[in-house]
Amino acid sequence: MPVSRTFHGRDVFAPIAAALAAGVDPATVGRRVRSLVQVKPPTVHRRGRTLVGEVLWADVFGNLATNVMAAHLHAAGFRGNRLSTTIAGHVVPIRSSYASVAPGRPVALVNSADLLEIAVNQGSAAARFAAGPGTTISVASHRTT
To answer: N or C terminus of the chain with fewer C-beta within 10 Å?
Structure first.
């Protein structure tokens, strides 16, 4: 079976998991790994009422996943405050969904992996902001009075 670039769960992991669950010897399903390398994501820094992180990857749609997690936002006390993120000099509102802004408009949201993601509704944030892995982003809390 050919392996898709985007469905590794279906094309690689599921068949191997099924074989192992059926009692197949692990040595027959692939090479033995002798050592693992633990990769640590870049650190998120706090500067006053701002969190500073970076883009980890861009997906095929041009959405930019960052190293800022929902837990970072909560730990910084950003719950209930108006939030925005800045990337490449552009301020992007943080909302709950892609559709919370008009088509063609940028938005930031916490994605299904609990990472802050910068997107453009029906567009590419990677292209719009000429951004990719390593691009610095910041998240600011704007208190309301």
So the answer is: C
